[in-house]
Structure prediction request, 127 residues.
Amino acid sequence: MGRVFLLQLEGKAYRCRCCDTPLALAEDILSRSFNCRRGRAYLFTNAVNVTVGHEEERLMLSGLHTVSDIFCCRCGQILGWKYVAAHDKTQNYKEGKFVLERWRITEDVHEELHLEARLGPGDADNV
Prediction:
């Protein structure tokens, strides 16, 4: 199979829930209001570290689309799908975009932890 080389992302990213591989940047979200069979999903302009499956015609809530399932290139977990073609002209904006199912991804948490060392009452003698 060969060695897998992963692209690292700079900034707040979404990652594979199974193996923590970076997948997409938060700034690349076009919509947070997509739905899939198992709940919420996000539409992204770009995704990395994914493999694209075979194209198929799929009837979705917004009409008929040509889509390809997308998988994590590290662990193989299905993540969502890529819109290849829209059959309705009003849906053309989705072409080439990626949908990541919310329950299959995690969001980076960049909280800085600041610990301040302060001398306690008995510590002054040890300095």
Summary: The chain has a mean pLDDT of 88. The first strand starts at residue 13 and ends at 16. The beta strands are 13-16, 22-25, 29-36, 39-44, 50-60, 63-72, 78-86, 98-101, 105-107.
